[in-house]
Write a structure and sequence with these properties.
The complex is a heterodimer of chains A (187) and B (347). Chain A is mostly helical. Chain A folds into 2 domains: 85 residues, Orthogonal Bundle (Rna Polymerase Sigma Factor, Chain: A); 80 residues, Arc Repressor Mutant, subunit A, CATH 1.10.10. Helix content of chain A is 69%, strand content 0%. Chain A is built from 10 helices and no strands. The two termini of chain A are 28 Å apart. Chain B folds into 4 domains: 55 residues, no CATH class; 29 residues; 135 residues, Jelly Rolls (Sandwich), CATH 2.60.120; 72 residues, Phage tail protein beta-alpha-beta fold (3-Layer(bab) Sandwich). Chain B is 33% helix and 31% strand. Chain B contains 10 helices and 18 strands. In chain B, strands 1, 2, 3, 4, 5, 6, 7, 8, 9, 10, 11, 12 and 13 form a 13-stranded mixed β-sheet that branches. Chain B has a 3-stranded mixed β-sheet with strand order 15-18-17. In chain B, strand 10 and strand 11 form a beta hairpin. In chain B, helix 2 packs across helix 4. The radius of gyration of chain B is 25 Å and the shape is globular. Classes of the chains: A mainly alpha (187), B alpha+beta (347). At the A-B interface, helix 2, helix 3, helix 6, helix 7 and helix 9 of A face helix 1, helix 2, helix 4 and helix 5 of B.
């Protein structure tokens, strides 16, 4: 989809294009929300609010360089505005014990399916501080550049890079403990 | 970014490097050249590079909790429509209105009008049941997005066609006929009305509300499920085989009606929507067939040995030249074109 064409027709009042924008970007916005808070209802409220405001202001809203960037920043702001601190993700303590598999063989069998690998990675990521998880999502899943992430999170570019690096170094350590990395062959 | 010192780069530094990430996720000819030179220059970094690559791929995946997101998206969409409708009824909306939802406050009078209109339309529908179905088709190198009346979306790949009845009957399955390749994002209807995709080889994919890719070219049909749940059935020579698919399943249906199943990353198989192509251990002959089917060229290889070579790659493709360049680089090939035929031979 050519997002700027769709955006232009949405601004002109096309409901079909509004629906297309929603279908295209709502899933990634919900996923991003999951990284920031575990409160699903809050995420859904914020998603609705962002699109409701967008529809209301369609005639006056500008045309962003990247629609995805614009919408992710919008839902982040909404989550911070609406969410109280307690609801936002708290990292598990550093010494959180990671359970090793009983045996090497069992690990192999369990890693046969992509779904299980996914669950293990989720488990590992949940041991990182909230900010590191958020950066990982924006960098690897949403594929933004460091300066774009800095603009979404309202922090310096250097600190985005440092946070990313720290997250990876920590994950690497956790992965080596669980021997997962060596067994996960994608290509 | 702080300049990476290549000689001392660790796996974590590589995995955090923007260019490295782009290369792993969306390799181009230039970046492949750059990183293979890097590997040659620093052979002791091979292990760090391999580990960095795996880290990038692991982190780019979806997370387990992401699966519920799609149902949430449908739920919020319904609430959003209600909120917009309510807002409109309170008269605070000064913009253009959704034509689908009407533009007046509901009164007894307009409700009556609506009922009469509905009756008239359904009568019309009833008499026009034999109405001609609509066929959408794409040319070589073209893609097309089609939104159906039930808000389902179909993305049609190049050289493909899809036939859709002019209207859906409420109680009958929504049935479409596909030739070529398409991605489907199907809405779930309140009455759990089914959605069925039929291919030219007699495979039927039966859906409730989900996202999946259907490939109906060459020897076998290929179905990849991204989200939700589908039931696949293949009928050949009067025999029917059935299978329930889970997200991440790829099922192939051979000409003889045999079903084969394996686990894949669905993103790779639906990447063509975003002008990317994934060669999953393809032979060069298969790559040639893809160029023929999607762009309409004829592709000739100079020998069986060459056309049997295999490639695994994930490429950004705007035109067939992008694929050919990569092949030429990887296998050291000579590629020439005469009119509509592309000739490929070893250097």
């Amino acid at each position: 989809m050519d997002e700027l064409e769709v955006w232009g027709r949405f601004k002109a009042g096309s409901e079909d294009d509004f629906s297309l924008l929603y279908r295209h970007f709502a899933p990634i916005m919900l996923r991003y929300g999951n990284r920031i808070t575990s409160d699903k209802e809050l995420i859904r409220d914020c998603l609705q609010q962002v699109f409701f405001s967008l529809w209301k202001s369609r005639a006056t809203v500008g045309t962003p360089a990247s629609v995805q960037h614009y919408l992710l920043k919008a839902i982040r702001n909404e989550l911070i505005k609406k969410g109280n601190r307690a609801k936002l993700h708290e990292a598990l303590p550093e010494n959180y014990h990671f359970e090793l598999e009983d045996s090497h063989e069992q690990t192999l069998i369990q890693l046969q399916t992509a779904e299980l690998t996914r669950q293990r990675i989720t488990e590992l990521l949940s041991q990182l501080p909230a900010r590191q998880r958020e950066v990982i999502f924006l960098k690897y899943y949403a594929n933004f550049k460091y300066d774009e992430i800095a603009a979404i999170m309202d922090i310096g570019q250097d600190s985005v890079y440092k946070t990313t690096y720290k997250a990876i170094a920590r994950l690497q350590q956790l992965l080596h403990n669980s021997a997962l990395l060596l067994l996960t062959l994608f290509f | 970014m702080p300049d990476m010192n290549n000689a001392t780069a660790t796996a974590a530094e590589l995995a955090a490097d923007h260019d490295f990430i782009q290369w792993v996720k969306y390799p181009t000819r230039e970046s492949t050249m750059y990183w293979s030179q890097f590997a040659e220059q620093y052979p002791e970094k091979a292990q760090e590079m391999a580990e960095a690559r795996r880290l990038v791929l692991l982190l780019s995946q979806e997370q387990a909790e992401d699966h519920s997101s799609d149902e949430d998206a449908d739920l919020v969409w319904e609430q959003l429509q209600e909120a917009i409708q309510q807002d409109r009824e309170h008269g605070r909306d000064d913009g253009p209105v959704f034509s689908l939802w009407g533009y007046t406050r509901r009164t007894w009078l307009s409700a009556a009008a609506v009922i009469i209109l509905l009756l008239a339309t359904s009568a019309l529908l009833f008499t026009r049941q034999s109405a001609e179905p609509v066929t959408y088709a794409t040319a070589y190198g073209e893609k097309r997005i089609i939104q159906l009346s039930d808000k389902s979306v179909i993305v049609l790949n190049a050289n493909s066609s899809i036939t859709i009845p002019e209207k859906w009957e409420k109680d009958e399955p929504r049935t479409v006929q596909l030739r070529g390749e398409a991605f489907f994002s199907v809405t779930q209807q309140p009455n759990r009305q089914q959605f069925i995709v039929k291919t030219s080889k007699g495979t039927e994919i039966n859906v409730l509300g989900t996202e999946f890719n259907v490939y109906d070219r060459g020897q076998e049909d290929r179905v990849v499920l991204a989200n939700g749940k589908v039931r696949l059935s293949a009928t050949q020579n009067g025999k029917t085989r059935q299978l329930e698919m889970q997200p991440g399943d790829l099922v192939t249906v051979s000409a003889a009606g045999d079903l084969r199943h394996r686990r894949v990353d669905p993103d790779l198989y639906t990447a063509w929507q975003h002008n990317k192509v994934y060669f999953d251990d393809y032979t060069l002959r298969e790559v040639g067939v893809l160029i023929e089917q999607q762009y309409g060229y004829k592709v000739e290889f100079s020998g069986k040995e060459l056309s049997g070579q295999r490639i695994t790659a994930f490429l950004e493709v705007k035109n067939p030249e992008d694929i050919l360049h990569t092949l030429a680089e990887t296998f050291e090939l000579k590629i020439t074109q005469q009119e509509n035929t592309i000739y490929i031979s070893s250097l």
